[in-house]
Protein: Phage shock protein A
Organism: Salimicrobium jeotgali
Amino acid sequence: MFKFFNRVKTVVGSELNSMLDKAEDPVKMLDQFMRDMDNDIRDAESAVAKQIANEKMLKRKYDDAQAMVDKRMQQAEKALEADNEDLARRAIEDKNSHQEQADQLKQSYDRAKKDSEQLRTKLDEMKKEYQEMKLKKDSLQARAESAKTRTKMNRTMSDIGNDESKQGFERMEEKVMQHEAEAETSEDLRSESRSLDDEFEDLGKDDKVDDELAAMKKKMNKE
């Protein structure tokens, strides 16, 4: 568990050079690493909880054995005060038996307590490293996204500025100029195709307006 956690930390701490060389998606890989590290921490928390429970169980058994030792000692003293040496002897024998158990339980308890402290220390280190790696991951993800965006923009700009794009714009420009030339030519041809009759007809229209204007003046003067 701890070995895998350290391996993940080493990979993330090296800024994922190997993953980038293999063209792997660093964002997805970082998320997976963080999930694995989080699972490791949960496993470690479970292991620490079990170890603490074992430590408490041994402590309780040791306390019970030691309490029995004290009890038998008091009983042996009480038997001697009553001049009952046989009862005192049996109390002492039972006390010694419980003392052996208490000594063994004390050793087991001390060992379990030491293991619990070491596991708690390791768990605290894992959580601290996890937070550090989380910050590192956020930074690497931001850099990866920025690199992707820059690459995409560069490719887009490259496509815009390539010869094919320029040729396409030039062809469209030529077509527009051709349409403009055709429009100007059609207007010139229309002007040239006007006949003399058309021009005289226009003149007649002007004369008709003049006649109507003269009649109107005459009428107004008469009135």
The radius of gyration is 51 Å. Residues 196-223 form one domain.
